[in-house]
């Protein structure tokens, strides 16, 4: 593996860490309703547990209410029970075939708990990025040891790896700050 390949791989893997963080942050609820909150809910569909999005249409009615439209009428009670039993603290209500899931107003204490969760997710992403930096630097040291790259190449590459790491850590900080702002907004 060459130094350029190491850098490309590093950048791609760090981008994956950021994408994973973004995905995890969408599942943390803010004051606004978001259908992605229900991604973790699984429903019993003829004996197998499937994600809610595979048995119903999810959409927003307004800023604080998610509507769940089951594709089969007999699924409504099962979907309602699955949402109620999830650890999201949501209380759905049936209106014929449509299930409305109102977002309860968050207390100040709950908002603070969620910001801690967001910071934890951000810290996990930073650790992943730093581990990738370490792996890249070790790969370059191995190339130098095998005499496939010079020590000057190693120094330049380590500087580039650090720049890439700093860029991704700044992006993580920006995402975490943005999510915290969303959560704390009343």
UniProtKB/TrEMBL annotation:
Domain Ribosome recycling factor stretches: 21-184
Domain of life of the organism encoding this protein: Bacteria
Pfam families named in the record: RRF
Protein's cellular compartments: Cytoplasm
Record's keyword terms, sorted: Cytoplasm, Protein biosynthesis
Family to which this protein belongs: Belongs to the RRF family.
Protein's job: Responsible for the release of ribosomes from messenger RNA at the termination of protein biosynthesis. May increase the efficiency of translation by recycling ribosomes from one round of translation to another.
Protein's name in the database: Ribosome-recycling factor
């Amino acid at each position: 593996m060459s130094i350029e390949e190491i850098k490309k791989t590093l950048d791609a893997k760090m981008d994956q860490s950021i994408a994973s963080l973004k995905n995890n942050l969408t599942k943390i609820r803010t004051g606004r309703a978001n259908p992605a909150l229900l991604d973790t809910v699984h429903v019993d569909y003829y004996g197998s547990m499937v994600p809610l999005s595979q048995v119903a249409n999810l959409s927003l009615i307004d800023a604080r209410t998610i509507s769940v439209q089951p594709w089969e009428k007999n699924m409504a009670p099962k979907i309602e029970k699955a949402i109620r039993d999830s650890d999201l603290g949501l209380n759905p209500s049936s209106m014929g075939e449509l299930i409305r899931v109102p977002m309860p107003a968050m207390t100040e204490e709950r908002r603070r708990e969620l910001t801690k969760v967001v910071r934890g997710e951000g810290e996990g992403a930073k650790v992943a990025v730093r581990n990738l930096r370490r792996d890249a630097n070790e790969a370059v040291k191995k190339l130098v040891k095998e005499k496939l790259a010079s020590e000057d190449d190693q120094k330049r590459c380590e500087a580039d790896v650090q720049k890439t790491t700093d860029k991704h850590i700044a992006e993580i900080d920006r995402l975490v700050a943005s999510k915290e702002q969303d959560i704390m907004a009343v």
